[in-house]
Design goal:
Elements (H helix, E strand, L loop, with lengths): L9 E9 L5 E10 L4 E5 L6 H9 L6 E6 L8 H5 L2 E5 L10 H11 L5 H10 L13 H14 L4 E5 L7 H18 L2 E5 L3 H7 L2 E6 L2 E7 H7 L1 E6 L4 H6 L4 E7 L2 E6 L3 H11 L4 E5 L3 H10 L9
Parallel strand pairs: 3-7, 3-8, 5-6, 6-7
Antiparallel strand pairs: 1-2, 1-4, 8-9, 10-12, 10-13, 11-12
Length: 308
């Protein structure tokens, strides 16, 4: 069966969403996520990551375009859709008067696919005290309960919005191990946002970057470093504008006295393109890490080329 013949787990088609006029949070978003993909959703605060995740859940609706989950609009049968989804959010609030044991029991009633044995394993791994009430837990402890609830019913789609916020480094590592094991065992699809780029590099198979309400980048993580080159050096004040004229230049900017340009090309081709576009610049190539790509896209004062 080919990729295009499969029903995508998540699909955004020409989606637009605004909060008040004329502020656009999302504009003309087109995105397809297939079964088994792990997609890291990146962007600065306010870029629209949480809005996209809430639209997948059916908590928000598009003002234009379509969002489909498992082939249907989430608002058409919200209960059926949510039973197939696990969700953890930085802003998620569990019932404060309940104990962890009560929270697990509540989720077991809500989800027909609840796995008691898996829940027991997760409680042990996260060192969750079943008798302790949510209101008496630290943020990290409560987040571990939320993660266990999201995974213990073996969801087909796992939505994680800054899931490791509040975790110390050891707890973050444990969370990643659990997420990877869940992925390996079930083949579930994962869509997650995180500012922890090391986590994204470890977990994601694909990276989507939001900027200025639109998609700036949608790239398999494995090929990201191979397809992009970062040029760093010095040049005349107008060098940035000249570099941007190159068809292969994604974005270019100045950082203090330094000139930085991100190209979709090999090192040799990027240097050739830069020399042709701006002969007065003196640039050296670097293979960018995900953090470099994030910074260049985030700090650019103009829309990256893919978005124009």
């Amino acid at each position: 069966m080919t990729r295009m013949s499969q029903v995508p787990v998540v699909e955004f088609e020409g989606v637009q969403r605004h909060f008040g006029e004329p502020e656009l949070v999302l504009d003309d978003i087109g995105l397809r996520i297939d079964r088994g993909e792990v997609v890291g959703l990146l962007g600065q605060n306010g870029a629209g990551k949480t809005t996209m995740i809430r639209m997948v859940l059916g908590m928000l609706h598009p003002h234009r375009g379509e969002v489909r989950v498992f082939g249907s609009r989430p608002q058409d049968d919200p209960v059926a859709v949510k039973r197939r989804i696990g969700y953890v959010s930085d802003a998620q609030v569990l019932p404060s008067n309940l104990s962890a044991r009560d929270v697990f029991a509540m989720h077991a009633e809500l989800f027909r696919t609840w796995d008691p044995e898996l829940c027991t394993k997760l409680k042990a791994r996260f060192e969750i005290s079943g008798a302790k009430k949510i209101r008496d837990m630290s943020k990290g402890e409560a987040r571990r309960v939320a993660v266990a609830c999201a995974i213990a019913h073996r969801p087909e789609l796992l939505l994680l919005d800054e899931p490791s916020s509040g975790f110390d480094p050891a707890a973050r590592r444990e969370f990643l191990e659990v997420a990877l094991e869940h992925l390996s065992e079930t083949g579930s699809t994962i869509l997650f946002s995180s500012h922890q780029l090391d986590d994204v590099e470890r977990l994601a198979s694909r990276v989507v970057f939001l900027k200025g309400s639109r998609l700036a980048l949608d790239e398999p993580l494995e090929s990201l470093q191979e397809s992009l080159t970062l040029l760093v050096g010095t040049g005349e004040p107008g060098g940035v504008d000249e570099l941007r004229k190159s068809a292969k230049c994604i974005t270019a900017r100045t950082a203090g006295s330094e000139l930085r340009a991100l190209f979709r090309a090999s090192e040799s081709e990027s240097l050739h393109e830069a020399a042709a576009a701006s002969p007065a610049t003196s640039l050296s190539p670097r293979q960018p890490r995900l953090e470099d790509v994030f910074i260049e896209l985030a700090e650019s004062r103009v829309q990256p080329r893919e978005m124009q």
